Amino acid sequence: MHRKHVRSDAIFLMIVIFVFILLTLAIVWSRQVTEEEEEAAYPSREEDSPSSFLSVQAAALDLPPIVEAAREEIGNEGGEKYWRWYGFAHRVEWCACFVSWCANECGYIDSGTLPKFSLCDKKGLKEEGMWKESEPAAGDLIFFDWIRDGVQDGVIDHVGIVEEVQEGKIYTIEGNCNDAVQRQTYDSEDEQIVGYARPNP
To answer: Sheet harboring 158-166: ordered strands across?
Structure first.
């Protein structure tokens, strides 16, 4: 009789252990499913590089169409696509051709929002009331007079498109930058910046 009682206790203990194991497995499985569902809903991101951080921020700001057009061209080399579109039969300094190409892509030229131009000249932009000396914003054009041998000659050398302005930095997209379309960054007080042009609304 004693042996039978011991055997019953052992069986009961085994059943308790078995049930405990089943419950533990069920809890672990439930947690795993919940974590997978949360990860699917909120995927984790790797640490952003400065350029990808800028892209994410810019995408959230309802970018001007000319910036969107320019961003699609980053990495394009040689410039032939832009100066041939403008009408040149041979290579020219193509930063302004690139800006005009982007303006055309988003309908700015047809609508009169920006004039078509291939030379970095502010005269026409001043006449149109677009020229400004400060306070750039995304979608503005930015003009430069490069310092060479420690001096500037007073002639505008280069033009790009302002992608974003943040904390004293101006982020641009430029054609004919190392013979390619590239992003660049400048201090807002950089003396090589001559001024800006804001497209007509």
So the answer is: 131-132, 193-197, 141-144, 158-166, 169-174, 182-187
Per-residue model confidence as pLDDT tens digits over 79-110 = 999 999 999 999 999 999 999 999 999 999 99
Q: Is pTM, for the whole model, over 0.85?
A: no
> Does an H or E element contain 5, and which?
helix 2-41
CA-angle at 161, arms to 90 and 144, nearest 5° = 75
**How do residues 5-57 score in pLDDT, each as one tens digit?**
556 667 777 787 877 787 777 776 666 655 555 444 434 333 344 444 444 44
- In the block, tokens 């988003």 appear at 106
Contact 72, 66 (CB under 8 A): no
Could you tell me which residues come within 8 angstroms of residue 83 by beta carbon, excluding any fewer than 6 positions away? 91, 92, 94, 97, 118
Pick the CATH number of 50-197 from 3.90.1150, 3.90.1720, 3.10.20, 3.30.2010: 3.90.1720
12's tokens: 């009961």
Q: How many CA atoms lie within 13 A of 195 on its CB side?
A: 15
What is the token pair recorded at 93? 């300094």
